[in-house]
Amino acid sequence: MSASRHCATLALLVVGAIWGTLARLGLVALNTYDGQSIEPTIWAQAVGCLIMGWVTHPKNKAALEQWYAPAFVMLGTGFCGCLTTYSSWVFRVFQAFSNELHFDRHGLHNVMDALTQTGATLGMAIASLWAGRALGDTLTIPKLPTSRYSADHVCIAIGVAFWAGAAILCGLHPPFRPETFALVLSPPGAMLRWYLSRLNSASLGKLGKLPYGTFAANVFAIAVLCAAYTAQYVGRSTGPGSLGAWTPTSCAALYGLQQGFAGSLSTVSTFTVELTTLRPLRLAFSYAFVSWTVGVIVSILLVGAPWWSLGMQGGCG
């Protein structure tokens, strides 16, 4: 891959990450209301997996790569990868287990709530992925002629413009700063995940070939999200011994770190593709179980331990 093509791919990742994060935040906001029966991020996971199934359909993937290879990376790794998020999903599972929101229920109900969120998210993700594949059977991308002229420099300019626009909006419009911080921080997360994906075909002795890159990205993302969440809320909000960075700008930056960087570094769409392609099936089940378990353990260590020892009455409300 030439230097210009590599930079163009990164630039289109910026575009895909910004739009994917924006779509995720919008879907979550649309599905957040009093009396909601299920975690609102499930719709972002479902829509992202639906589009991922359509994009990764063999005919569509071939057509995109023949026309302009970075376009497939932009849609699959960038847009779908950032529209879905593993870190927020597993963190919500931890919150259900620990009843952090203090619902009037006992321990068994906490377990059932966590298992319900787990099963509903995985079920919707897999069903949406297969629906996207089925859609690809009837709605295919026509084979477009490859241009004689390179679009790399144009794509680089577009990517820089989108990223700069998000940064300018973040600086000039404080009311939307939590969301614009997320848009600014989402491209680095998507880029890091793209680089880590090169580990997916690695083989570690008897462990065989597993998607280690996606696993590393998802685990690191949940660690970043939990660390930022703890920085927001741990300790007392006022008085001696109070902890945290509780100014409007710092709270917005920590939110952006969670929803932007961590949300884009982690992915459910790629995770679901891997679950449906890993063989034998016991390998897929093991991969899902280990990923989920490690994510919950990281949440316990980085959020549960400070919460139970110092409290979570910090000032970022």
From TrEMBL:
Keyword Transit peptide assigned to the entry: answer is: no
Question: Domain of life here?
Answer: Eukaryota
Q: Which segment of the chain is annotated as a signal peptide?
A: 1-23
Keyword field contains Cytoplasm: no
Give the transmembrane ranges.
Answer: 39-55, 67-94, 114-132, 153-174, 212-232, 285-308
- Catalysed reactions, semicolon-separated: fluoride(in) = fluoride(out)
Q: How does it sit in the membrane?
A: Multi-pass membrane protein
Q: Which GO terms describe its molecular function?
A: fluoride transmembrane transporter activity
- One GO CC term, this protein: plasma membrane
Question: Pfam families, from UniProt?
Answer: CRCB
Keywords from the UniProt entry: Cell membrane, Membrane, Signal, Transmembrane, Transmembrane helix
Q: Where in the cell is it found?
A: Cell membrane
Its function, per the record, reads: Fluoride channel required for the rapid expulsion of cytoplasmic fluoride.
The text of the family note is: Belongs to the fluoride channel Fluc/FEX (TC 1.A.43) family.
> Per its record, how is this protein called by name?
Fluoride ion transporter CrcB
- The organism of origin for this protein: Malassezia cuniculi
